[in-house]
Backbone:
């Protein structure tokens, strides 16, 4: 566990961090109408150093939200449009035969050409439109922050963040992400359809002459500093134990697991799920101007941290059981004080 910084330093640093996050959020909201919960979740991924997966039907502004966030920070940004004919080399890069000059005598040589994965923020748009072979090209980058191509391993820029969008898996022409890759995402965020007033605001902003723009308000050095501060925030043992109990209760063989989990779940969440809950809870407490995370913070992020890590069995799939319903039962079944 990181060494906790002193109380005086913590108060001052957390205040400055809260103010910076509020500024970043306001800048994104200049373009994005509503979706405040989604914005908080994407900013959480940025600060936690974890990747985010946004799921929703087309037209809800998932791509625009990520583009807007990238425009609000001083970081390199690349967008990759995933399609069925996209190849791994289109993402990580490839070695090309180039004609040289000078001492080499003009002989052709192989030179590596980096792919679009070499950026601080990478938008993997409609990631489940690509084939599993191409999806897997992101695995090493997301897990290790490196790319191996042409027999050499190359480090990606720091900070590095993949924000992916996907359409619901029941739509035609999609390829479900494998469990191993889903586990690489810190959070899976559901993008909901906007309310009536939000739709009115969207129409006002998008069908008139004036188009809102954003300006960068944070740079790489400040983001790295905030990431370090997040991990220095002290967490009580009771909150950590609660995170562990919630994770274990998603496993059907655990005594604390509710009946719904025991009946419909095949595999529970991985240890990365516990890490995601604890990191996200730390960030939520900063956003709410508090010093340490509470159990309520854990509950507020548990769904996004675990919904892509819990796997239904055949009976659950056949009966159309929703993972979120199972997780709601888990949060109800696991007490806060034991």
Residues:
């Amino acid at each position: 566990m990181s060494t906790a910084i002193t109380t005086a330093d913590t108060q001052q640093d957390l205040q400055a961090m809260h103010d910076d996050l509020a500024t970043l959020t306001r800048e994104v909201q200049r373009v994005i109408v509503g979706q405040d919960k989604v914005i908080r979740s994407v900013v959480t991924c940025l600060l936690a150093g974890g990747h985010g997966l946004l799921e929703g039907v087309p037209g809800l502004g998932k791509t625009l939200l990520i583009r807007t966030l990238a425009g609000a920070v001083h970081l390199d940004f690349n967008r990759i449009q995933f399609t069925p004919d996209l190849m791994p080399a289109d993402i990580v890069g490839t070695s090309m035969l180039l004609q040289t000059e000078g001492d080499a005598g003009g002989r052709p040589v192989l030179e590596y050409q980096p792919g679009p994965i070499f950026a601080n923020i990478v938008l993997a748009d409609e990631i489940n439109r690509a084939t599993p072979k191409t999806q897997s090209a992101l695995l090493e980058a997301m897990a290790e922050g490196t790319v191996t191509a042409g027999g050499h391993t190359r480090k990606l820029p720091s900070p590095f963040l993949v924000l992916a969008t996907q359409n619901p898996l029941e739509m035609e022409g999609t390829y479900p992400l494998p469990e191993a890759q889903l586990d690489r995402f810190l959070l899976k965020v559901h993008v909901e359809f906007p309310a009536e007033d939000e739709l009115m605001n969207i129409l006002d902003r998008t069908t008139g002459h004036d188009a809102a723009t954003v300006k960068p308000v944070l740079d790489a050095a400040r983001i790295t500093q905030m990431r370090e501060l997040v991990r220095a925030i002290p967490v009580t043992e009771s909150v950590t134990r609660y995170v562990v109990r919630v994770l274990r209760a998603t496993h059907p063989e655990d005594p604390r697991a509710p009946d719904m989990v025991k009946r419909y779940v095949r595999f529970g969440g991985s240890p990365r799920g516990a890490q995601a809950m604890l990191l996200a809870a730390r960030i939520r407490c900063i956003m709410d101007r508090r010093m340490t995370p509470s159990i309520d913070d854990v509950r507020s992020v548990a769904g996004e941290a675990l919904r892509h890590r819990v796997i239904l069995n055949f009976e659950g799939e056949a009966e159309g059981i929703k993972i979120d319903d199972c997780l709601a039962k888990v949060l109800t079944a696991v007490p806060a004080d034991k």
Remarks:
- DSSP finds 15 helices and 13 strands in the chain.
